[in-house]
Design a protein that fits this description.
- The protein is of the alpha+beta class.
- It folds into 2 domains: about 190 residues, Immunoglobulin-like (Sandwich); about 40 residues.
- Helices cover about 30% and strands about 40% of the residues.
- The chain is built from 5 helices and 12 strands.
- The strands form 3 sheets. Strands 2-12-11-4-7-8 form a 6-stranded mixed sheet.
- Strand 11 and strand 12 form a beta hairpin.
- Helix 4 packs across helix 5.
């Protein structure tokens, strides 16, 4: 009887423990070459209980693929006398160069705004870290403008039904990397969420880098900036001279 009671206690304790996520990515290295038109990343994995068995309940899954952060200045255009001019501007010190989020349901049905802000779940909750003091309304306006511009270039993405979960165990999400995807280290973070609370998370890594001729040019520009500048000027002069000779013959 005591042994049965102990087993029941262990089962109850196990049922209350948080799950374990086992994430994987279809490509840990993405090579950019001449003529690269984009590719698709498959982010998948398993949701298990601490004993390695199938999770005892359903979880919402959110996957966030985030690229390297960089400083960026956002300028607001205003129309004066029928002509568009750059007007006010705001600088952010840590805007992600790429951000994509996919979820098993719309995010506002999975987490509240506070939780979304803590884990940066969704375009409105990306932490951009403005440089200097800025009024909250102004920051929201410029952050929305940045997100809209990046989304138009497919560099910021949000798919509210981009994650499928099978048999409470396997999940998968497909994220498109466009042809203009920036190089650098990416993190693919998966969140298991239950009743609005993040109960587990796990991270996988992805590296995006140039290859072939593009990689050679990028390495030369980075390691020999002075000579790269001289070469660029020389090429411009030669091309200008050739263009001038061609126009002279016409």
């Amino acid at each position: 009887m005591k042994r049965l009671f102990a087993i029941l206690c262990l089962l109850l304790l196990g049922a209350g423990r948080d799950p374990i996520l086992v994430p994987e990515v279809s490509q840990h290295e993405v090579k950019l070459w001449q003529g690269f038109t984009g590719t698709e990343l498959l982010l998948y994995g398993a949701i298990l209980d601490p004993d390695g068995l199938r999770a005892a309940r359903d979880y919402d899954i959110v996957v966030v693929l985030k690229g390297p952060t960089r400083a960026i200045t956002v300028r607001e255009k205003q129309k004066h006398a029928g002509i568009w001019f750059n007007d006010a501007s705001t600088a952010f010190r840590s805007a992600p160069a790429f951000y994509a989020v996919a979820s098993s349901r719309p995010l506002d049905r999975i987490v509240d705004p506070r939780t979304a802000a803590i884990y940066e779940l969704g375009l409105p909750f990306i932490q951009l870290s403005p440089i200097g003091s800025i009024e909250p309304d102004r920051q929201i306006r410029f952050a929305a403008g940045l997100a809209g511009q990046m989304a138009s270039e497919q560099l910021y993405q949000e798919d509210p039904q981009g994650v499928t979960v099978s048999e409470q165990v396997l999940y998968q999400a497909r994220i498109q990397l466009p042809s203009n995807v920036p190089t650098g280290q990416y993190t693919a973070e998966t969140f298991a969420i239950s009743k609005g609370r993040v109960v587990a998370s796990a991270v996988a890594r992805v590296k995006v880098e140039k290859s072939g001729f593009e990689k050679g040019v990028a390495d030369f520009a980075r390691h020999s900036a002075f000579f790269y500048g001289l070469l660029a000027v020389a090429v411009s002069v030669v091309m200008g001279w050739i263009a001038g000779r061609l126009f002279a013959l016409v």
